[in-house]
Every structure is written in structure tokens, then in C-alpha cells.
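User: C-alpha cells for this one?
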Amino acid sequence: MSNPPLPPQQPGAQQPGPHPAGPQQAGAQQPGPYPAGPQQPLGRRRLPPAPFGLPGMPPANSRKGLWIVVGIVAGVLLLVAVGVLLLVNLVGGATRQAGDLADSFTQLVIAGDTNKAYNDYMDPSLKEQLSREEFDSGVKSLQLDPSCTTAYDDLKVSNEGDNNIADIAGLIKCPGKDIELVYRFAGKDELKMVTIRLRPKA
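Assistant:
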């Protein structure tokens, strides 16, 4: 007895039984050749790796602080330099003034003009201790002449309270003899002689 004929299959109808593996549905992930790394939690971004080589320029705040320090140091150095220059000028000016006074006074003494030397250069306190006559006779006893010259060994300028002090020591060099001289000038605005010593060098 023969089998009944199979009904004709409609196009697109699925055949019963096992189906061959077809292409996977769209959207399905394909396994890659490497395992997937750990997923970053949401809300946190991964920092970029540190650059290779030397670090870059320091932040702007650091540079600003550095410039402030440099400016302060430069200002202090400038003030110190100005102070030193002023001090040198003041001391140098007082030293020159004292040297000029001593030289002018000594030239009058050598020339025998004791009246002008006494009146113009001596302080009233010294005039109370040394009269004009005593000063004149003392200078004449030295027997100075125009060939004598002066040489100052020491000239110091200092301050005592409001007064400027100038101490001067040296020699009046004459043919065959030397005369020791010691002067002290003092004063606030104008220096006047407060101490004098003139005597032959032993």
C-alpha cells in the first residue's frame, strides 16, 4: 500500500525539525579577542596619565609669590645702598670741612697772622682758657717761617650728641725741626676749635 502524497509547502514556511544556525540578531555583542576591562563607575572621569619628562612651568600663583619676594629683597638692598651712599657723603663732607679748617688755621699760624686765627677759628670756650696774648706769644716761640709745610697723620670725624667732632693730628714740618699739632673742632652747624696743642717734637 503506498503512502499518501505530502501536501505542497508554501514558500517561507518553516520546516519542522532542527534549524541551522543563522546570523545572530542585530544588537547582540560579539565576543572580542580580549576580555573587557573593568567598567568605570558613573560620575567619575578617569584622570589622564602623567606626562613623560620634566614637569611643566610652576603655577601662576607660585611665580607671583616669587616676584613679590624678589621685589622686597631688591627694595631692601636699594635702601641699604642709598643709606651707605648718604653716610659716605656726610662723613666725607665733614672730613673735608675739618681738613680745610685745620689747613686754613695752620697757614695763618705759619704766616704769623695770630689775630685772625684766634678770632675766626677759636670757640669762646677755648678763648676763656687761652688769651690772645698767650696764643700770640706761644706761636712766636715756635719760630715758624713760610717754608714750613703741614702733614696730617690722623683726621677723625664723629658725633657726640648734637655736636660734630673733628680730631686732627699731624706735623708742621720746618727746616731742622718738626712741630706737633693737635686740634679738635666741634659744633652743631659750624665747627670751631675747642682744643689746640702746638709744641716742638721731641
